[in-house]
Design brief:
Chain lengths: 315, 247
């Protein structure tokens, strides 16, 4: 758990972060969202003490970070940044092994861990381990960046616009990847972004920041349904909210389940239970059908979802 | 291995010429027909070469140490305020003519090797310092940010990231500095240091072009040898630390 209490940061006379309180529960993904210069990155960089705070206190699992050795503190916090910051003169494997090496793990344990992480992040160890960062695509490099941050299995993950410089398709893939990994490893994550859609997709709770203050701290659904101020309302997109809400809910919630899963007829296309209602509606509009079958992860048909029900209850 | 072939060949040529200069007597007679003696014999060329190389190595080692240390200091958060000062000191070292340094140093240090060592060190400081600063400043800030954010101490960031990444540029600075100083060291002969400048000075005093030529050829050849040695070193560095350049 990370607690920020009355935290303030001034640069000269300018106030970058203005007396904020924020609690991030263990295992949740807290997304700090806001336009550039709103203080979200500053807030993140105070948590691992890359920036000193002017006032207030920050507690990690109840302990004041001001009393800890900054290097020790950071070794237990994965850190992912936009430019990746991979060492260009080290191979992918050595980059991932950075923190375990600093922690003086034995060689075999490091090798095993690097192999495990590359597999987790969908990088083939045999082809990529000995490459250099310049030989990777932007998406692959950021996967290595995430693997490096996870290497020593820290409790906390800090991510500063990690997918900001990637193209839309790569970004979407990495977001899905992150959701999948987060399900497996359950890290307490602080994620900074200016992209509200990214925030809605990844967050357990979102903290909307503006001019150094936290305007609203709530779940994605509540941010959409009950924006606290006009600023938040504009940020989430007034007109677009219905579809965004549908984007948060899964097909599983509104489908009519069959009494028992059944084998689908060969060749039928459908949706998966974890797809969003937004996607379901889009598919039905495109195919011009009133309903679509739903499959589970084993490929069995577990129910159907109708256009009528989505329109009636989706948002 | 082919990388090291040019410096080795040049070095063989240099040593061969230093020991076998008398064999070229007919050639120098043809250049300087009016003199009885056309081969410089007051000191063996090999000894002069040794001493010359020694002077350059000692001054380059001291200069590199001072310049790299200064460059590192001036790019640390605590030393940033001194950055302009450090650059200025190095620039002054370069603009001050080595001859003037000798003239000023002789009364303090006496004749011999010491004044020329000081002059060479000062004169060689700037290229190394300038390249150290350029190399350290050119590192992608994200690399340093990530290194610190992952829990490296400032010293670990310096040793594991900054110096290997800036090393190639620093090495290029040392190369420039050493090459310049091989030529500059020759003026040490005017104040009693034994260098390959001896035959040049003696030739100028006695109007013996053959002497001048012998000293000049050997100095030039030494500079070429050293330069190709650095070329090989830089290529080796690339293979080790910047694989994307070597391919």
């Amino acid at each position: 758990m990370i607690e920020l209490k009355h935290v303030t940061r001034r640069f000269g006379n300018a106030v970058a972060v203005d007396n904020i309180d924020l609690t991030i529960e263990t295992g949740e993904v807290c997304v700090l969202v806001g336009s550039s210069g709103c203080g979200k990155s500053t807030t993140l960089r105070m948590i691992n003490r890359l920036l000193p705070r002017t006032d207030g206190e920050i507690l990690v699992d109840g302990e004041d970070i001001g009393t800890m050795n900054p290097e020790q503190l950071r070794l237990n916090m994965g850190y992912v940044i936009q430019g990746t910051g991979l060492f260009p003169h080290w191979t992918v494997a050595r980059n991932i092994a950075m923190v375990p090496q600093l922690l003086k793990w034995p060689r075999e344990r490091i090798d095993a861990r690097v192999h495990e992480l590359m597999t987790l992040l969908d990088l083939d160890p045999s082809t990529h381990a000995n490459k250099y960062p310049q030989q990777l695509s932007g998406g692959q490099a950021q996967r290595v960046g995430v693997a490096r941050a996870l290497a020593a299995d820290p409790n906390i993950l800090l991510m500063d616009e990690p997918f900001g410089a990637l193209d839309a398709i790569t970004r979407e893939n990495l977001q899905l990847e992150m959701l999948r990994i987060q399900k497996q490893v359950r890290k307490t994550t602080v994620f900074v972004t200016h992209d509200i859609d990214e925030a809605l997709k990844l967050a357990t709770r979102i903290a909307v920041m503006d001019q150094g203050r936290i305007i609203q701290h709530d779940t994605p659904e509540n941010i959409l349904r009950r924006p606290a101020t006009e600023f938040v309302e504009n940020l989430v997109g007034k007109q677009d909210r219905g579809l965004k809400l549908m984007g948060l809910r899964t097909v599983r919630e509104l489908m009519q389940a069959h009494p028992a899963p059944k084998r689908p007829e060969p060749g039928t296309e459908g949706l998966r239970e974890e797809d969003s209602l937004r996607l379901a509606l889009s598919v039905m509009l495109w195919q011009d059908t009133p309903q679509v079958p739903v499959f589970n992860s084993r490929g069995e048909e577990t129910g159907v979802i109708t256009r009528e029900r989505i329109v009636r209850e989706g948002a | 291995m082919r990388l090291w072939l040019p410096p080795v060949l040049l070095a063989v040529l240099l040593i061969g010429l230093s020991t076998g200069m008398p064999a070229l007597e007919p050639l120098f007679h043809w250049i300087q027909p009016d003199k009885q003696q056309v081969i410089y014999e007051r000191e063996s060329f090999l000894f002069l070469l040794q001493n010359h190389v020694f002077l350059v190595i000692v001054s380059a080692a001291a200069g590199t140490l001072a310049a790299v240390a200064g460059g590192i200091f001036a790019t640390r958060p605590s030393g940033r305020d001194f950055l302009p000062l450090v650059s200025q000191i190095a620039s002054i070292g370069q603009t001050f003519p080595p001859v003037a340094v000798l003239a000023l140093a002789v009364p303090v240090l006496g004749f011999g090797e010491a004044p020329i060592l000081v002059a060479l060190m000062l004169y060689g400081l700037l290229p190394i310092l300038r390249n150290t600063l350029a190399g350290l400043e050119s590192i992608n800030p994200a690399v340093k940010e990530a290194a610190r954010g992952m829990g490296m101490s400032p010293l670990q960031v310096l040793v594991r990231a900054e110096l290997p990444l800036a090393g190639r540029v620093i090495l290029a600075g040392i190369r420039t500095s050493v090459t310049i100083n091989i030529a500059t060291a020759a003026i040490g002969s005017t104040i009693g240091a034994r260098t390959l400048g001896d035959p040049v000075i003696a030739g100028l005093v006695n109007g013996n072009t053959a002497y001048v030529l012998q000293g000049a050829i050997l100095i030039g050849l030494l500079a070429l040898t050293t330069d190709s040695l650095f070329e090989a070193l830089e290529r080796t560095w690339d293979r080790r630390f910047s694989p994307q350049v070597a391919g």
